[in-house]
């Protein structure tokens, strides 16, 4: 394979605290021999696991970006046993523009494994695939609903086939100490960053920390407390690991979103009105929202109903809605021991069809 065109200004194997950048070749109307910068930091001390902390995979998801930037500021080598590598804003131009996608239209989270000879998003993905993910024992990739959706603040995971990897990922997900956890499937193509890390055998811990275009202070706190507790849980950060029980909190709710029918889209454009909030339990055929039609105001709104029994996990945050847009997602409560059941990895993952809205 070709050498990577991405240059890293820090020594990824070096000791101590380093802060630098990844440089990608950039050609523009104002710069023929220019570079794009992606920040990166490493904090290393002695023996221990290597943890790769990633945020800003999608530009408009700022919850993880703030937590990762704070981690770079506050983490010192004497607190670490092993190495923490942090890339706080993967999609820098998208973050500045408050968009999910890169200005080119690329979805960075669908760019893996990438290519050193491809466009910039694939070059960066290739660098992660070949140089950042392989030395890591644990990969943390922080997401939220961005501007598009409000997601119950949670940590979440794929239910991978390897039982040892699945067990470690479940424990890591639970170590975030969020009120909810979510089991998800790929409903919109391939090339996900977490899947690349899973395929390399890593313990992958991911989140959906709210969204909707605003980050409440409580979500910033959850991002920070969850991230640092996970680092303690995997043994790279000093300090006592907290649990829901030690915090005086009830057990978290695990929602199983692996049935493709949970992911509801609409067939027409309109204005979306949510009728219930995430966290609400619904029965099949109960109303979740309505779609209004401003071009034909004499037409009654279409009631969008739950396709299954479950709990509302995600709801669309932007009222203006196009045909084919996702408007809500459900999940069904599941116990942790069911996630570890050897049959669970095969359950409800054979199809990626999404249920269309029914009036």
Properties at a glance:
alpha/beta, globular
Your description of this structure?
The protein is α/β, with parallel strands linked by helices and 359 residues long. 20% of the residues lie in helices and 30% in strands. The chain is built from seven helices and 20 strands. It has helices spanning 62-74, 92-97, 120-132, 163-174, 193-199, 217-233, 336-339; strands at residues 7-8, 16-28, 31-45, 50-54, 82-87, 138-141, 149-151, 154-157, 180-183, 203-208, 253-256, 263-265, 270-274, 281-282, 287-292, 302-305, 310-316, 320-321, 326-334, 355-356. The strands form two sheets. The protein has a 16-stranded mixed beta sheet that branches. Strands 16-15-13-18 form a four-stranded antiparallel beta sheet, with no helix packed on it. A hairpin with a 7-residue loop joins strand 1 and strand 2 (16-28). Helix 1 (62-74) crosses helix 6. The chain is globular. The N and C termini lie far apart (52 Å). The relative contact order is 0.13. Mean pLDDT is 94; it is low at 344-354.
């Amino acid at each position: 394979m070709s050498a990577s065109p991405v240059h890293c200004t820090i020594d990824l194997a070096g000791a101590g605290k380093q802060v630098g950048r990844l440089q990608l070749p950039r050609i523009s109307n104002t710069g023929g021999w220019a570079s794009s910068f992606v920040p990166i930091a490493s904090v290393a001390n002695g023996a221990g696991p290597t943890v790769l902390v990633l945020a800003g995979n999608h530009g408009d998801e700022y919850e993880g970006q703030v937590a990762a930037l704070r981690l770079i500021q506050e983490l010192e080598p004497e607190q670490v046993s092993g190495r923490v590598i942090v890339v706080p804003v993967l999609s820098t131009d998208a973050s500045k523009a408050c968009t999910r996608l890169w200005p080119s239209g690329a979805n960075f989270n669908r760019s893996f494994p990438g290519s050193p000879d491809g466009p910039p998003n694939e070059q960066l993905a290739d660098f992660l695939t070949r140089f950042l993910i392989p030395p890591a024992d644990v990969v943390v990739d922080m997401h939220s609903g961005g501007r598009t959706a409000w997601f119950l603040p949670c940590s979440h995971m794929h239910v991978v086939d390897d039982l040892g990897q699945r067990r470690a990922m479940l424990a890591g997900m639970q170590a975030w100490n969020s009120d909810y956890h979510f089991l998800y499937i790929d409903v919109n193509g391939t090339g996900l960053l977490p899947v690349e890390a899973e395929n390399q055998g890593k313990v992958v811990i991911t989140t959906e920390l709210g969204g909707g275009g605003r980050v409440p202070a409580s979500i910033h706190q959850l991002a920070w407390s969850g991230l640092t507790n996970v680092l303690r849980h995997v043994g790279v950060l000093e300090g006592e690991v907290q649990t829901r029980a030690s915090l005086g909190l009830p057990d978290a709710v695990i929602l199983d979103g692996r049935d493709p029918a949970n992911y509801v889209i609409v067939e027409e454009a309109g204005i979306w009105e949510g009728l219930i909030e995430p966290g609400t339990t619904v029965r099949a055929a109960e109303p979740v929202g309505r779609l209004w039609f401003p071009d034909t105001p004499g037409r009654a709104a279409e009631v969008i109903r739950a396709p299954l029994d479950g709990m509302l996990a995600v709801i669309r945050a932007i009222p203006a809605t196009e045909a084919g847009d996702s408007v809500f997602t459900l999940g069904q409560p599941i116990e942790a021991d069911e996630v570890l059941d050897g049959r669970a990895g095969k359950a409800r993952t054979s199809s990626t069809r999404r249920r269309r809205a029914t009036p």
